[in-house]
Design brief:
Blueprint: H1 7-23, H2 26-33, H3 41-49, H4 68-80, H5 87-101, H6 104-114, E1 120-123, E2 139-141, E3 144-153, E4 160-167, E5 170-177, E6 182-187, E7 193-203, E8 209-212, H7 213-252, E9 254-255, E10 258-259, H8 264-290, H9 296-325, H10 335-348, H11 353-370
Parallel strand pairs: 1-4
Antiparallel strand pairs: 2-3, 3-7, 4-5, 5-8, 6-7, 9-10
Length: 371
């Protein structure tokens, strides 16, 4: 298949690939794994200088007007490099939620994110609600906020967090400082840094509530679909590298007096993996286009289909990559096992395969009702 991207998207991808090749290596990744702070000052400033901080956002809100396809081009290169710099966690994720909320207060905070002044994370998940981000268990009772948020990805450095909460029967998005919460930090499967937050009667002022009701629901729904597309981009970048590494290994690794690439079973795997990789790229292009659709049903079906497909095929490519490499594939010294962790983690972020298959069915039923 011929996947010809727009010229500007190709330039963005090429720039990201070159920058990461020159400034981020597997050794950089290993060193970053052992750090509690994943924000490296020089690379962070370089990303800002490259225009990445403003790219995901519309020109009307102070950004550079990049499309989801453009952002996916960067994120797939971050996945290919195993880069743990929290570009998505501290720029894209909170920034898109603020842009979708589209209130004066949210846009003022977005401006500080684009400029690099603010380090804001998103806390939209909790243990009781699972992947159902529109029904959080966090409660805003009057001026007091109580509950917990889990898997708040922040690179270990956020100073503020956007949380979702129920205020009566309404969904609300609230911005508050990290130090207003009890914070437990930990490392996730892919090596990134996250935190669990406990809020105990935290005082919330009117200015801290960014939006409520239908506006909050629409913002969170659009945010969820956007982040699902970025998960697919990250997985695609990782799978691309695993396939190339496995192909090279099969060409050079000798067993029983010949290269293992001459074995029929290995050849069949490599052909199947190549086909899967082509299909993954096709799905990524589809979700990159439809993931920004104003049609909620179309957008939901596209992101659900892509995420469910990736959770099966992308994970399968990395699993077979380890299988062909043998025992060395699970060692810390080889990147194959680390790619497997990345893809497994991304396949579970913002909904696992079963969750998205259910979403796909529900979105189809709603679409049929409209028709």
């Amino acid at each position: 298949m011929d996947f010809k991207l727009p010229e500007n998207t190709t330039m963005i991808a090429d720039t990201a690939r070159r920058y990461l090749k020159d400034n981020y290596s597997f050794d950089s990744y290993i060193a970053q794994l052992n750090e509690s702070n994943h924000l490296e000052a020089n690379r962070w400033q370089a990303m800002n200088d490259l225009g990445w901080f403003g790219l995901p956002f519309a020109e009307s809100v102070g950004g550079y007007g990049g499309s989801l396809l453009d952002v996916c081009a960067i994120v797939q290169e971050l996945g290919a490099a195993l880069c743990l710099d929290p570009f998505v966690d501290l720029i894209v994720s909170p920034g898109k939620l603020l842009e979708f909320a589209n209130t004066p207060t949210s846009l003022a905070l977005l401006d500080r994110i684009i400029s690099g002044e603010a380090r804001v994370a998103c806390g939209l998940y909790d243990r009781h609600a699972g992947y159902h981000v529109l029904n959080p268990s966090l409660r805003l009772n009057g001026e007091r906020l109580s509950g917990q948020k889990h898997v708040v990805s922040d690179g270990g450095v956020a100073d503020a967090v956007l949380v979702s909460a129920m205020s009566g029967d309404e969904l609300a998005i609230v911005a508050l400082p990290f130090d207003a919460c009890d914070v437990e930090r930990y490392r996730l499967l892919d090596g990134s840094r996250a935190a669990s937050l406990t809020l105990d009667d935290v005082l919330i002022t009117d200015e801290m509530v960014l939006c409520r009701g239908d506006a909050a629901k629409q913002a969170v729904s659009a945010w969820f679909d956007y982040l699902c597309a970025l998960d697919c981009a990250r997985m695609y970048g990782a799978c691309r590298e695993v396939y190339q590494a496995t192909l090279e290994y099969a060409r050079t690794r000798k067993q029983f007096g010949t290269t293992i690439g001459s074995f029929q079973v290995i050849q069949h795997y490599l052909v199947d993996a190549f086909i899967d990789l082509q299909q993954l790229e096709s799905m990524l292009l589809m979700v990159s286009v439809k993931g920004e659709s104003a049609n909620v049903c179309e957008r939901g079906r596209a992101t659900a289909a892509a995420k469910a497909y990736y959770a099966n095929r992308a994970v399968g490519i990395t699993q077979q990559g380890i299988q062909i490499h043998g025992g060395v594939g699970v060692t810390e010294e080889l990147n194959i096992g680390h790619y497997f962790r990345l893809v497994t983690h991304a396949s579970l972020s913002h909904g696992d395969r079963e969750h998205h298959m259910s979403r796909f069915i529900q979105a189809g039923e709603k679409q049929n009702e409209v028709v």
